[in-house]
Design a protein that fits this description.
The protein has about 130 residues and is mainly alpha-helical. The longest helix has about 30 residues, at about 45-75. It has three helices and no strands. The N and C termini lie far apart (about 50 Å). It is about 70% helix and about 0% strand.
């Protein structure tokens, strides 16, 4: 989305981004939930899942707020005299999408390093 040209068809670029985004979020949330629950004893699985869900929801809200602030600040500081024009708004949107991409890379790196020793999740332990 950071490279999209507003003149392109929705089906050419934006559609694929919108289709793939929920898939990545669902996979990330499911795997994270399994690992969080697997780390805690059986009697605290519900508590661990609830705390994880709360933190995930809070993190999502905080991330959206940060992205909105960045987009509006970049749009306001753009060299375009008409701040409501599509070109001024696209400057803010592009920076926001690049910031999202960078945070995704950082999250992936932390996940790879942090989950190296996770092993197989869901195996019954005797």
């Amino acid at each position: 989305m950071a490279l999209i040209n507003p003149k392109w068809s929705y089906w050419y670029a934006a559609f694929w981004s919108m289709v793939l985004y929920p898939v990545s979020a669902d996979v990330l949330f499911t795997i994270s939930s399994l690992i969080i629950v697997d780390v805690f004893p059986a009697k605290t699985h519900a508590l661990a899942g609830a705390v994880f869900n709360t933190v995930a929801q809070f993190g999502t809200s905080l991330g959206i707020a940060i992205m909105a602030v960045v987009a509006s600040n970049v749009t306001r500081e753009s060299g375009n005299p008409n701040k409501d024009s599509p070109s001024a708004l696209m400057e803010g949107y592009r920076v926001t999408f690049w910031l999202g991409f960078a945070s995704m890379l950082l999250t992936g790196a932390v996940g790879i390093v942090g989950l190296r020793k996770a092993g197989k999740v869901g195996l019954k332990r005797e």
